[in-house]
Amino acid sequence: MAGTDRKRPLTAGGPAVILVDPQLGENIGAAARAMLNCGLSDLRLVRPRDGWPNPKAVANASGADTVLEAARLYDSAEAAVADLKRVYATTARHRGMIKRVVTPRRGAAEMRKALARGEGVGILFGPERTGLLNDDIALADAVVSVPLNPGFASLNLAQAVLLVGYEWFQAGDKAPASELVTNETRPATKAELLNFFAHLEARLDDCGFLRNVEKRPSMVRNIRNLFQRAALTHQEIRTLHGIIAELSTLRERRK
User: Alpha-carbon distance 163 to 160, whole Å?
Assistant: First the structure.
C-alpha cells in the first residue's frame, strides 16, 4: 500500500531492532521498511552474511534510507545489547529454557514502560533459516512469541519485525506513566551483566562446578537465565562481584 507523505512528521526512536546473522540484504531492507512504518529507527546488525552496506537492502527498503544509514554493525549479539538494560528475543519454538514468554502486545507495553524510565530496550531477531541460537536467547529477559496458527506459525524476517513493531506503535497512546526510582541505583546494563557472568563462570570453572564438558553449555545458559529473571540492578551486580571475590579468597585460604 502506498502511504508515504513527506509533509507529515516522521516518528522515530523506540527499542533497538537487532538482526542477528541476517542472510539477505533484501530482507534487511524489508525489515528497515517495516521498522520505519512503525516509528522505529535504531537498527543493529550482527554479522550480516552478505556484508554491509548492501545495495540490495537499499532497493528493498522502499525509502526507509534513514534507518539503513544509521544502522550499526556488531561482531556479536553480546556487543549489540551491551548498552541496553532490557532485551526481548523473538522465537516461535520452545527452547527448553525457563523464560517468561509474552505476546508482542504485552511486550510492547512493557517496552514502553521501560523506555519511559530511561532504560534502553532491544529486540533480538534471528536469521531467516534457523532463528536465534539458544545462547542468543539466553541474553534476553523475556521471549516474544506471536500467537498464530499452531500448525503453521512460520514468519519471514520482515513480517516478524512488522508484527512486533506494529504492537509497539499501537501502544503509543497507552504508554504507562514513568515509575519513580526510590533508591540511588539503576537497572544493570547487559554489559555489566555479561561481565558478571564472565566473573562467575570463571570461578565456577576454577572450583570444578562446570567440569562436565558436555553439559557445560546448558548449565551456563540455565545460570544466566536465572540471573536474567532477577532483573538485577547496578548495585546488586557490584554486591555479587564482591561475594564471588570473597568466596574465592576464602577458598584460597583453606587450601
Answer: 5
- Rounded-to-integer distance, Cα 20 and Cα 219, Å: 23
Please check whether residues 64 and 141 belong to one and the same domain: yes
Total domains in the fold of the chain: 2
What domain range includes position 199? 190-254
CA distances from 171 to 100, 112, 146, 168, 240 (A): 20, 8, 16, 5, 36
Do 157 and 31 meet the contact criterion of CB atoms below 8 Å apart? Answer: yes
Q: Are 190 and 83 in contact (CB under 8 A)?
A: yes
CATH number of residue 119's parent domain:
3.40.1280.10
pTM given for the model: 0.83
Instruction: Tell whether 167 and 201 lie within a shared domain.
Output: no
CA pair distance 149, 144, nearest whole angstrom: 16
Q: What is the pLDDT of residues 165-198, one digit of tens each?
A: 999 999 986 544 445 444 668 899 999 999 999 9
Domain co-membership, 30 together with 84? yes
Q: 74: closest CA among 154, 191, 232? A: 191
Closest CA to 194 of 71, 84, 43: 84
Give yes or no: residues 164 and 231 share one domain.
no
| 221-240 pLDDT tens trace | 999 999 999 989 999 999 99
- Is 53:68 a contact under the CB 8 Å cutoff? yes
In a domain, 213, yes or no: yes
